[in-house]
Amino acid sequence: MRHHPRSPSPHTHRAPGKLPRIDELFDNLPAGVIIHATDGRILSANHLACRLLGHSHTELVGAESNGTVWQFVHEDGSDMRPSDYPVNRVLRSGENLPDQVVGVPGLPDGRIRWLLCNAYPEFDEHEDMLRVIVCFTDCTALKYAEQSMQKAEERLRLALRGSTDAHWDWDLATGNLYYSERWWDMLGYAPGELPADAGLWTRLAHPDDQARLASLLPGLLDSHRQGYGVEFRLRHKDGHYVPVLSRGYVLRDADGNAVRIAGTNTDLSERKKAERRIYELAYFDHLTGLPNRRLLVEQLEQALARCARGGRFGALLLIGLDNFKLLNDTLGHDSGDLLLRQAAERLRGLAQGGNLLSRFGGDEFVLVLDDLGQSIGAARAGAADSARAVQKLLAEPCRLPAGSGAITPSIGIAVFGGGVDRVDTVLKQADLAMHRAKADGRNTLRFFGPDMQAAAERQAALHEALREALTQRHFVLYCQPQFGRDGRPCGAEVLVRWLHPQRGVVGPNEFIAAAEASGLIVPLGRYVLEESCRALARWAADPQLGKLKLAVNVSVHQLREADFPQTVAEVLAASGASPAKLCLELTESVFADDTEALIERMHQLRAQGVQLALDDFGTGYSSLAYLRRFPLAALKVDRSFTHDLLLTPHEAPLVDAIVAMARKLKLQVIAEGVEHETQRDYLLRCGCDALQGYLLGMPVPIEEFERIHGGVLTPKNNDAGSF
Ligand code: C2E
Ligand code: CA
Ligand code: CA
């Protein structure tokens, strides 16, 4: 910086002790000062004025302030007309002109210098204007800082407009509140449509959030927190509430006072929707919209805890739809789904108060009755009422595309409370009770009782014993002969027995069902099949036994295994038995299953040369339509029909009909349970192809059977049954 030139005035020295010389004071002022005459000419300019304007004292004094000496610009950079120069405005108006910013371009450093001017007139005692004084300071740095701040702010706003977050800014000093366009948009308003004061949020907030929101601000102002993040709901213009995550930052001065709060509001609608969806997927059944098993278990846990605390009772109803699987298979899965939805819709009304209705699994619903009073008796009565309400609600036939169908429920009830209950125990008890209801003929309700627990424990013990027996190979094969119309043996049925270490020989009626329920029937069935095929292979060398077919009972559980045909092929190959000599007996329960897949498996077996017979024909769910599609070789007339012949030895219309139908379908007919000659005679007369029964031959251990009916190893025994 150049040292300012001294004014050429003669008063450069002053006497000590006197007041400071006015012109010297004038020159040393930290502001530029220019004194104009009333015609606009410059009378005087101090040192800083010369420097700020970039002119020497001589250049300035005497110059007209009309633009010949300099050219000012407006704040926006446009040229200023001389009439707008501060001095000229004061000359015209005769009034003070404070705080006018003018720019001086063309300075040596190339930048515009910005001056903050104060101009005022001086009058004499007659109110005639004497002079106009213009004072100014350099505000360039401030001006550029402001400009760059404006630019930064603009950039920020542009960036924020692109973001989904709604920006806001609150200057606590000025009280200015700025809400971005996005902020307004998020709530459906045009910018500024509502008064943008500090209370706006609380006015728009959900009633439940208002108190929290109102306490947020004082907390921020008082404490030394730097920021916050809260979730609340703001009312949209159309009335719904927008979930918002608000994050803010507090700017504090050196003393820690909040001077500014700025932040963003994020619209959480989408996130909330996704969260809700995830919650629904996890906790609700997609078909019926009811709570699923997972939610049930969680809520049941709470209900049990509440009952235990309050000394109260509740009940859990397990509602199984009777024969649903069959309906589903015969009417199609769409109808099955529709039926489940309609059932859910009807039962939904029962889930009132603390009660919970849930879809528990395929065709099972659970109703938890939360509070049934303080005694077991009251709880049982209340639960029975609800169970009857369930029966009533489901009694009306459902509308289905194929017509209407009624569905009945079997309901198992477990009462809880009055002690410590566990979720799994209560569910297990209701399940036992429901199975009892089904076993007792369906469409009924049963309370869980200790007897069921005992039965369940017996069942579990039986499963365990069977498992053990299987590893110990405690199962043996018995064989019962079958005879052709000529009276000669034509085959045998394999009947399994359990050689129990304590109980001796145990018949299949005592353990097949348990083996099926535990899944052990699959390995057990395979064992029987292997032993049977080994026997067939042995028999092939024997002139008598070699002629016989061997019938092996196959459970539907075995046929449900996708690789069952493969298993049979492997067992046959491993043993070397001829497939043509193997006959598999299936029961009618295959009709009530995923029939398409089962039929496909039956064809695969048939293709191997294995024969298939339908056992116990006439007792189960017979569908003639299916019968035609099954690749069967024979029907076995159930024992009960044979038995009926004892009562009416001369007439058996059912047996006649079965034989006639079998003829049409080109199936062999085997009659079982023949105990009396009258039965045998009638059955032969009406055209049965083969007979089996105690009259003709008892089931005996397979070695004994081989001894009796074999031709090589042992001579034909006189005990051998024949007509
Ligand atoms: P099923 O297949 O109907 O077998 C015939 C049953 O009738 C046998 O009972 C047989 O002993 C009995 N029986 C034979 N002749 C007469 C008669 O003249 N009068 C009477 N009242 N009954 C007669 P068992 O051996 O107790 O078998 C019962 C059931 O156990 C079988 O009925 C069959 O369903 C099942 N079963 C037997 N062995 C097996 C097997 O290895 N696998 C599978 N899955 N089930 C088997
Ligand atoms: Ca059988
Ligand atoms: Ca049978």
Please tell me the overall pLDDT: 88
CATH class of the largest domain: Alpha Beta
Distance between the termini: 141 Å
Please report the total strand number as a whole number: 27
| Overall form | rod-shaped
Q: What's the total helix number?
A: 25
CATH architecture of the largest domain: Alpha-Beta Barrel
- CATH homologous superfamily designation of the largest domain: EAL domain
Structure ligands? ligand C2E, calcium ion
Largest sheet: 8 strands, mixed, barrel
Per CATH, what is the topology of the largest domain? TIM Barrel
Proportion of β residues?
15-25%
pLDDT below 50 for ≥5 consecutive residues: which ranges? 1-12, 713-721
Main structural class: alpha+beta
Count of domains: 4
Gyration radius (Cα, Å) is 51 Å
* Subunit organisation of the chains: single chain
Helical percent range?
25-40%
Biggest β-sheet: strands ordered side by side in the sheet:
18-19-21-22-23-24-25-26
Describe this structure in words.
By secondary structure, the protein is α+β, with helices and mostly antiparallel strands. The chain folds into 4 domains: 22-146, 2-Layer Sandwich (Beta-Lactamase); 163-273, 2-Layer Sandwich (Beta-Lactamase), CATH 3.30.450; 284-448, Alpha-Beta Plaits (2-Layer Sandwich), CATH 3.30.70.270; 463-709, TIM Barrel, CATH 3.20.20.450. Helix content is 40%, strand content 24%. An 8-stranded mixed beta barrel has the order 18-19-21-22-23-24-25-26, surrounded by 6 helices. Strand 6 (166-171) and strand 7 form a beta hairpin. The longest helix has 23 residues, at 140-162. It is rod-shaped. 32% of the residues are buried. The structure holds ligand C2E and calcium ion (2 copies). Ligand C2E binds at residues 480, 495-496, 507-509, 512, 525, 528, 553, 555, 615-616, 639, 672-675, 693-694, 699.
